[in-house]
Amino acid sequence: MKLVFIGPPGVGKGTYAQAVSERYGIPHISTGDIFREEARKGSELGKLVKEYMDKGLLVPDDLVIEIVKRRLQETDCRNGFILDGFPRTLPQALALEEFAKPDLVLNFIAREDVIIERLSGRRVCANCGAIYHVKYMPPKVPGVCDKCGGPLIIRRDDRPEVIRERLKVFHEQFTPIIRFYEERGRLITVEANEQAPVVIPRVLSILEMRFKESPRSQSGK
Ligand code: AMP
Description:
Layout: E1 2-6, H1 13-24, E2 28-30, H2 31-41, H3 44-54, H4 61-72, E3 81-84, H5 90-100, E4 104-109, H6 112-120, E5 122-125, E6 131-133, E7 152-153, H7 160-183, E8 187-191, H8 196-211, H9 215-218
Parallel strand pairs: 1-3, 1-4, 2-3, 4-8
Antiparallel strand pairs: 5-6, 5-7
This protein binds adenosine monophosphate (AMP).
């Protein structure tokens, strides 16, 4: 089950990826997470990619492709994977066709007002990083972290004007990728305006239908 998940910030992609990962025992691989982790560790790779990330630039294709290729060779990917944040350019999409052609690409969409409500309600603990939502996952005491008592803040990224800019960048980057998979008949668009308990079963049933073994292969012929 080789999957690619595409979706704007705030669409809930990480939550759906986690559910699919648990259901099918395949890893959720986010290139952004790999790069942030390397940057945090201060590895050679981390230092290199940090320069691009800090400037808001894409990491060069050759480097990203090599990292993903290596990651997909690890044993936990033998039954498949969920790629998130990759491919982001056409050369990346073409390279992926060669070394691990995706079976299916899920393109998550949600209305802009839904996304803005989700992201602008998000609060992060300045001390321990725990995440809350003023409406959907409120802390016991407003503005105070349940776990460590630290102050809850709004990330700069989650301010409505910054969210609109992030959505614009997302559409610029991913529209050609969405078209790429659409043209190849491997894209399914999934509506994600509702909360996760509604969207997760929708995602799982799409996968179940798509990856159900055919009667032929079940009978072993
Ligand atoms: P993300 O968390 O997916 O938004 O990724 C954070 C940052 O990592 C991006 O702004 C890029 O600098 C870098 N990055 C992640 N994935 C890719 C990719 N597929 N190609 C190039 N750069 C990437």
